[in-house]
Every structure is written in structure tokens, then in C-alpha cells.
Amino acid sequence: MRIGDLAEACGLSVHTIRYYERIGLLPYAPRGRGGRRDYDQGILVWIRFIGHLRATGMPIREMLRYARLRAEGPATEGERCRILEVHRERVRADLAELGACLRVLDQKIAAYGAPSEEDDDHVEQPAVRRALPARPEGPDRDRRPGR
Prior knowledge:
Layout: H1 3-10, H2 14-23, H3 43-55, H4 60-72, H5 77-113
Helix pairs in contact: 4-5
């Protein structure tokens, strides 16, 4: 499939696909007649996977490390599994923090419906350790993750 077809199928821009290929996140596509990239349909599974990694906050440098190991083959499965296990723990911690934030928002919203003599904005709330997400790297930094 041509790069435009791939972009449409996976929701990334042509520019992002070229960028991912250039930095090594996607393997170089073989060239068809006329020198145009000719992607195999199977690349969509990999692109979806890295989209999930990106959406869950894995830095590109970690995705690149994983991609390099993947390219080396089955001998690196243990190390790839460890990368994903560490990332999974970060995602779980992020989910726990987001859950706490959601509970605070729910309480705040519920408080607006209840009569109150004092503004509840000064009520003690759990501290949030989570930093705001860093701006994504790459050409689509102004777009939503995975798009």
C-alpha cells in the first residue's frame, strides 16, 4: 500500500509516517516501481501498537529502544517484556492518580448542587503529583495522541 493509503488507514499524517520511518520507529518500506514506498498491510498492527504506547505516555526514546530490540528478533523478547512491564506500572500509577483526580472533580461537581455558605474551593484536597503531560515530540505535536 502507498504511504497515503497507510496514512488514511492508521490516522497518521504522511509527514508523521515519514518521520517515524526516519527516526527508526517504523521500518523502512521497500520501494515499488517508480521509487514510491510500498507498505505491507501488516505494518498497521505495529502502528496501532506504538499508538497505544504513545497514548499511554511512553517517551519516543523508549519506543525507539523497543523498536530496535524488536528488529533484533526473538532473542530480545525478555528485554522487550521488561520494558512493557515497567511501562505498565507507570500507566497503572497514572490511572490511580487520574482516579483520585476524578473523585475530586465528582465531589466538586456534587458540591455545586448542594447549598453552601462558603466556597468549597478552599477545602483540603489530595495533592496531585502528576505533572502535566509533556508536549508530544515530532511533527504532529499539536495533534491528539495516536492521530
